[in-house]
Each structure stands twice: as C-alpha cells, then as structure tokens.
Inverse folding.
C-alpha cells in the first residue's frame, strides 16, 4: 500500500492538517477553512493567545512522525512542537477525549529568528538521529544552522550558501505521444548563476542526440549515439578554470574512450571528463589549451550500460584534482595551476576538442550535469542505523592455509599468494561466529551493514597497503593497513559490507602478500528488534588511559594490583603471560557494558610478538589484537567483549613489552537503561590529506607542526553526517614524520586527553582507527588532532562511518 505525505498549513489564522488525497502532492484544497476537508489543530498561536497570522511553520520527520518549528515573523521568537505534541493534537480532533488535550510547545528562542533576519527557514532530521535541526537563510544567502539538543538549540557556524553555477537537468522533453526518437534541439540551464548558458546542438541542425523517455532511472535524459555531435553552451567559459570548480554528471556509457564533457581551449580541450577502459578520467590541459597535453587522474570502474554519478573537483591554490564515482573518492593528482584561464571556450557535452576539431564522441545516456565555482566533494548518502553485535574473535581468512579459504575463491593457499594489484572477495553474511552474548545469532545475518575486522599482511615481497571496502562499490583511494616488505602488520578497521553480503580486500602493491582476517564484531540493521544481543555505542566524554605499565609513566603499583588483576607493579609485562583489566565500574563505564572500544599500545618490546585481548573467562583464541616488532612502538584499536567480573584479559605472547590501554567508549545491550549511538556505514571517504591540502581551511598543503593541532572542520565532517553529537569512525595516518611521535584525536573545544590513537617512529607511514566524537556548540562538527612530537608530520584522515 502506498502512502503519501500530509500537509500542515495555516488558513484564516488557524493551524490545519490536510490529509493527502490518492496521489503524490494531491490535496483537496479550496482556498478557505470553510471549503476544505482539512482537520483543525489549533486556533491559538504558540503564545496561547492570538491567531497564526504572521507566523511561519516548518516541519521535520523524527522517526516516522512529524515535528514542527513555529516562528513569530516579527519578534523572531521560535517554538517547537514535538512528535508527541503533533500526535496529541491530531488525536484530540479525530478521537476527542472527555477532557481536551493541552499541548504546550517548547520555546527555544525569544528573538533572533525573525522574517527580516531569515526570510527562509527550513527543518530536517538530516542524520535521522532523532535530533531535528533548523536553519535560516538570510537575504544575502548566509545560512545559519542549529540542532535541537534536549530543550535548547545548539547553534552552528554561519556560512554562505553555495549555489550551483549552471545546471542542465537534460529533462526538457519528458512526455511524447510519438514512438519516434525526438532530436535534442536545446537544453535549458535552470541555475544560470550569474547568467544562464543553454545548450544547443553542434553542428547546428544535428539530430543524433535524442531525448530518452524510457529509462526508469530518469524521467528524461539525453541519449548520445557516438555520432559527430555535441551539445555546446550558448556562451563561452561556463567553468572558469583558473579558480576553484566542481563539475558532475550522471552518465551511462555504452562504449569506452569517449568524453562526457569538456571545455575548449584555443585548439584543444582545456578540461575533460571521460570514460576509458582503465577507469573514469579527469584531465586539465598543461599547455594552455594549445596542444593535446594534460595532467590527468584516473580511477574507479567504468561499467558499461550502468548509470554512474561522476564528480571532479579542482582546488586552484594547490592545484589538487580529485575524482569521485558514485560518491566514492577514487583518484587524486595535481595540475600546475595558473591565474590565467586557458579554457575560455565553450563547454560541451558528448565530446572534446582535438587539434581544432571535435572528437571523442560520447555514446550512452547523460542527465543532471552541474557546475559550481567552488570545491564541493559529494556528501555521503544516508545509511540505515545498525546495532553492534559482539563476538569471540574468529579467523575467516588465512591465505596461507587451505582450510581458511572457504569464505573466498580464486586463491591458492601458500606463503605469499595474493597477487599484486589484486582484489580478494570475502564473504561476511552467513559466516559462523561465536556470539559473546547469550541468544545472539550464531551466523551473521543477511542484514549485516558493516564488519569489524583485524587485517594482517605478512610475507610481503614489496611495500604496499590493503584497502577494504564493500563489494559491488567503487574501490576508494584510501588505505587501512600499510605494510613494508617481509614484515607482519595488523590493522583494525570497520568495513561497510556490500548488498551481496561481501567485502573486498585490495592489495595495493607491485608484489605478493599473504592476508589474514579475524572478525571481532559486526553491525546489523534490525529495525524490528529480531536479534538478541543488539548493542549501542556510548563514547566516553574524554578518552581515558586505563593502563600504562611503562616504568617512566606507569600507574602506581597499588592501582595496578587493585584494578588490573595479575599485575602487581609497573614495568614490562613478561613474555607469554596474561593479566586482567577492569573495565566496568570505573571511568563511568556501567556494569551493563558488554564490550569496550580500546586502543592497545606496546612500548619497549624485547622482540617480535603480539597481544591478544578477549573476554575474561573465555578461552584464548591465539588470534592477535596487536602485532609488535622489536623496539618499535606499536598501537592498534580493538573491539573487545567484556567477560567475568566486568574485565577483559590481555595476553602477551613471545616477548617482554610494556602495555598501554586507552578506552574511548563502550557498548551496552538495547534495553539495559543506557541510550547509546547506532552505527551508520559509509563508503571510505578522505576528509584530510595535508600532503596536498585536502581539507585545509586555506586549500594549501602544510604538515602538522611540532606540538601542533590540526582541526578537522565541520564542512569536512558534514561530508559524512550532519547529525549532532555524532562519533566518527576515522582511520588516522601519519606519513613523512621527522621525529617519533603520536596523534591524539578529540572533540574540538575540549582538553586533549592524556591518551594516544596512533604512535609512530620517524619517517614511518602507519595507520590506526579512532572513534572520535565531534565538538558541539561553537565547535560543532569539529575534531582536533594533536601532534605530540618534536617534529612535523603529514596527517591523512579517512572516514568509513559514524555513530549517532
């Protein structure tokens, strides 16, 4: 059964609810209260006296129910009606009780939201976290946003509204009574900022480009046949190439080596976006548009006959070119930027300019082409909220062992058999697991959305990295486990799972390697509460150091013996020994906690070895939570079930080492009295790269200085989510460091905790996962990363999801 949205409105000074008729956007409206079937909700405005004349309302869905903000246009007073309030008002009319229901809205502001200040106000629960937001747009286009936090508004930063420069929806003809193909004679620029530049066929009168009204993905799009025709703008320089810009298009190519869009230089294209056998390609001419010579980046897969959303951005200050396919970051590079615009010719769809002649004619469908005079990476689409399920660590892949290849195919067991530049597909849904809570699924459900895994690379023949991502999606230009040849490196990560229940592991190397994957937990969509053991996550207000055996900074011996089981003094932990670490009952972690997010670090190792962390009382699995080398600091995040007495056990294998444990948050069962955050998976997205200026406030590349702090901006975190009080799942990478050091990630506006997220040696390239809440209030959406080092380092931040 299809349902349609109802309409809230004011008529003759009263508030009404108009149920929808049988169709999207159809309502029985007749202009006055006397001639409508609308349901009267309120005759008095939120102050309790007076009509609704001079008030503006805006609504948001919270869950599946409406909430409403009401603004006094003259005074700027702002009120909020909760979903409960709105249901009570409707119920009072439809099924009136003996005593009328009284609804008192929450007053959020006495002034500041007037129609003169914000002619336009809008509301939405964008992060679907149950915390609706409202934003106002000033007469000059400045946007100010706020999020409802309990009974008050958290005001966010203000900024200009970024409007697209040009938009060609390519839907000018959407209906036809004829079965014959309809040639495209023109296409309208619906944005036209500052001036509309419509599209017309070139050569004039060409008719090979036609309107396609049959594709279910778009009501109308343009079909190119690969003939000698392009659609060209009515005026030159639609995209100023000597400034920041973004171009995007929906494209369904049927052949490769064709150009989607380009902008002409003197004799050759100055900018091109193309489909090639090697992937999608973004090019900028490095010879002032006078020769066929380009700075190019290429990435992603071109799937012929399939729609793809392709976005290219250029940052003029640094010359950084970025490419995104289906919202996934797939390629980056640089172009020798110039203050002179070398591409002042017309923009054209469906071909390029080569030696003064049009070429590279496109074949396939095209829709929704847009340009902006700003760098606008695509925002990640919303993903369903998921619960955490805690399990005993389970090995689901070991390419060295033929008995551990049942979840994959195409690999021969051996010491180093994962080929260079190869993708290993790994099944997740249906895998057998041992749940750490009674009654939880013994096999991973088909509704799994993400998986927590330890990925180990060993027996490598060359340096490289592993990228883990959802099967069936574009491979992101991110890494999660970096390795050097003939080493053993383990990295913890939370990986989105494809709709087919699988993930992919890409070996980014010119050499071979062996891969080992241990599953430590997973996330599942369970809106009806089918599965026992569903858990939510609660971040600690500030990360805490629960253990440090290092004699130079160790905890007092009394604390060790009292809180940490078998340890009785500071100093290195003996080889092949284990101890218990108390989790619940300290650091504000409740007794109902069932798993903990902990970052383990080893210092002063006596040789090669590994730590294993597991629930106290459970049998050890001999699977590593952290591998370490000789005399090198190592750190890794972990997702560990809590066992007997509210403790976890840490086992040190092979060599003596000091151990540090930092706690960032914990998981509790649904219904345990703790209201935590749920997980949302997104495609791995690069937020920061100081090597090329990605994420920089000034667009310039610059290392993080000694004892310096890098602030990840709200604009960058909002690529992932706009939810207030969210916790981002980020992969932090240190590269090209000039001294030993560590990163500490924490909410901007708070004091940096005495913990660490990643430790490195000078010159080392190393990554680790961090679960970091964003700042609030004037620091809304921001994350600070502190470089505790006497040297500089580059910082790379990739995000694969968030809790909200």
């Amino acid at each position: 059964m299809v349902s349609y949205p109802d309409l809230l409105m004011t008529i003759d000074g009263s508030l009404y609810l108009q149920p929808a008729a049988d169709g999207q956007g159809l309502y029985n409206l007749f202009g006055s209260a006397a001639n409508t079937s609308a349901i009267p909700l309120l005759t008095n405005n939120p102050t309790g006296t007076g009509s609704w004349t001079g008030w503006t309302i805006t609504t948001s869905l919270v869950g599946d129910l409406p909430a409403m903000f009401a603004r006094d246009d003259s005074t700027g007073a702002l009120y909020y009606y909760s979903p409960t309030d709105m249901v009570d008002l409707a119920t009072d009319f439809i099924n009136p009780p003996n005593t009328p229901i009284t609804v008192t809205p929450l007053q959020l502001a006495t002034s500041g939201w007037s129609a003169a200040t914000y002619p336009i106000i809008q509301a939405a629960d964008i992060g679907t976290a149950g915390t609706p937001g409202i934003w106002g747009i000033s007469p000059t286009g400045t946007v100010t946003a706020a999020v409802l936090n309990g009974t008050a508004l958290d005001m966010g930063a203000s900024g200009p509204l970024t409007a697209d420069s040009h938009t060609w929806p390519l839907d000018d003809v959407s209906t036809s009574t004829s079965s014959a193909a309809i040639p495209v004679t023109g296409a309208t620029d619906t944005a036209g900022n500052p001036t509309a530049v419509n599209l017309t066929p070139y050569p004039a009168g060409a008719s090979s480009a036609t309107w396609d009204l049959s594709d279910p993905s778009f009501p109308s799009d343009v079909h190119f046949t690969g003939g000698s025709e392009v659609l060209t703008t009515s005026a030159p320089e639609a995209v100023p190439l000597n400034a920041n810009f973004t171009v995007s298009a929906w494209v369904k190519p049927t052949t490769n080596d064709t150009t989607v869009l380009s902008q002409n230089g003197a004799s050759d294209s100055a900018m091109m976006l193309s489909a090639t056998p090697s992937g999608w390609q973004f090019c900028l001419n490095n010879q002032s548009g006078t020769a066929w010579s380009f700075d190019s980046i290429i990435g992603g897969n071109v799937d012929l006959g399939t729609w793809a959303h392709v976005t290219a951005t250029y940052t003029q200050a640094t010359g950084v070119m970025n490419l995104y396919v289906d919202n996934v970051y797939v390629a980056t590079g640089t172009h020798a930027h110039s203050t002179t615009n070398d591409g002042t010719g017309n923009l054209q769809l469906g071909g390029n300019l080569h030696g003064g002649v049009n070429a590279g004619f496109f074949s396939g469908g095209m829709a929704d082409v847009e340009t902006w005079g700003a760098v606008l990476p695509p925002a990640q689409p919303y993903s369903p909220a998921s619960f955490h399920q805690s399990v005993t660590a389970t090995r689901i892949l070991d390419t060295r062992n033929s008995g551990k290849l049942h979840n994959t195919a195409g690999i021969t067991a051996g010491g180093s058999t994962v080929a260079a530049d190869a993708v290993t597909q790994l099944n997740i849904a249906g895998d057998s697991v041992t749940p750490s809570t009674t009654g939880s699924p013994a096999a991973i459900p088909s509704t799994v959305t993400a998986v927590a895994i330890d990925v180990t690379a060993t027996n490598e023949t060359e340096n490289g990295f592993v990228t883990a991502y959802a099967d069936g999606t574009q491979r992101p230009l991110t890494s999660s486990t970096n390795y050097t040849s003939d080493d053993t490196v383990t990295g913890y990560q939370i990986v989105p799972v494809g709709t087919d229940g699988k993930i992919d592991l890409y070996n980014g190397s010119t050499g071979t390697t062996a891969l080992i994957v241990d599953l430590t937990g997973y996330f599942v969509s369970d809106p009806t509460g089918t599965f026992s053991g569903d858990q939510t996550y609660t971040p600690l207000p500030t990360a805490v150091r629960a253990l440090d055996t290092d004699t130079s900074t160790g905890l007092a011996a009394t604390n060790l013996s009292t809180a940490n089981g078998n340890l009785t003094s500071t100093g290195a932990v003996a080889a092949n020994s284990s101890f218990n670490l108390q989790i619940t009952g300290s650091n504000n972690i409740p007794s109902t906690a069932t798993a903990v997010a902990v970052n383990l670090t080893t210092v002063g190792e006596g040789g090669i070895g590994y730590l294993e962390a597991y629930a106290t009382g459970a049998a050890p699995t001999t699977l590593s939570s952290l591998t370490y080398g000789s005399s090198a600091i190592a750190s890794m995040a972990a997702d560990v079930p809590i066992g007997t007495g509210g403790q976890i056990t840490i086992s040190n294998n092979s060599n003596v080492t000091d151990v540090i444990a930092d706690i960032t948050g914990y998981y509790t069962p649904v219904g345990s009295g703790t209201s935590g955050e749920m997980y949302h998976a997104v495609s791995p997205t690069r937020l920061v790269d100081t090597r090329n200026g990605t994420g920089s406030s000034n667009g310039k590349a610059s290392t993080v200085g000694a004892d310096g702090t890098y602030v990840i901006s709200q604009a960058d975190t909002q690529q992932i989510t706009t939810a207030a009080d969210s916790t981002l799942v980020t992969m932090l990478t240190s590269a090209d460091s000039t001294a030993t050091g560590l990163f500490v990630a924490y909410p901007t506006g708070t004091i940096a905790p005495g913990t660490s997220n990643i430790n490195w040696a000078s010159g080392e390239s190393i990554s680790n996962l961090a679960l970091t809440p964003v700042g609030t209030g004037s620091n809304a959406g921001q994350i600070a990363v502190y470089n505790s080092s006497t040297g500089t380092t580059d910082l790379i931040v990739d995000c694969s999801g968030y809790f909200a």
